[in-house]
Amino acid sequence: MKKDSRFISKSFVVLVSLILAFLLTQCVNLGQPQGLGPTGILYASYSLGLSERNLPKLPLKKGKACVKRYGIFFTTGNASIGEAANASGIMDIYRIEKEATNYLSLYSSLCTVVWGI
Known about the structure:
26% of the residues lie in helices and 38% in strands. The protein is built from two helices and five strands. The protein has helices at 2-24, 81-87; strands spanning 43-52, 61-70, 74-77, 93-103, 107-116. Strands 1-4-5-2-3 form a five-stranded antiparallel beta sheet. By secondary structure, it is α+β, with helices and mostly antiparallel strands.
């Protein structure tokens, strides 16, 4: 009986160690997609400017479209540039940004923000 409990205990320690190693070395990415800035297991929030041209003298409208992930199994939304522009009726785009948020790898969002007229 003692041999079985020691085996289970050692197996559990090895399993937990492997999971932590994968998470800490980013072999498993539960945060934002790779290449879009820093990812964090606990929390991450940032905005990246991707494209900008000379701004007009007119006030700009802001359009936003997001993809949201709940847990690791359910993702919904459309974060395309066209969707963000259509959300505010923008016909001429002057600036494109990406905004990302991640909470404990249980909820995350990636948004495309466009500015234009």
